[in-house]
Amino acid sequence: MTSKTVIVPNIGCEGCTRTIKNEVGELAGVKHVTADVTTKVVTVDFEVPATWGAISAKLAEIDYAAEEPLMPV
Fold this sequence. Notes:
- By secondary structure, the chain is an alpha+beta fold.
- It has helices at residues 14-25, 52-61, and strands at 2-7, 30-36, 41-46.
- The two termini are 19 Å apart.
């Protein structure tokens, strides 16, 4: 399984996080989505057939475009 963590600057409320979780979570292969309104951080756990390209495109489509992935600490 692959995990990606990104900043999504457009997150402004709990409704935003709910939309991200619902929309991205519907993609085939996406196993878990977390989104935090305070930090504006989104983490997606996924496996084939999902790809980061498809997930990133979905985020952009719903007006929550992701910035570059966060580097591991």
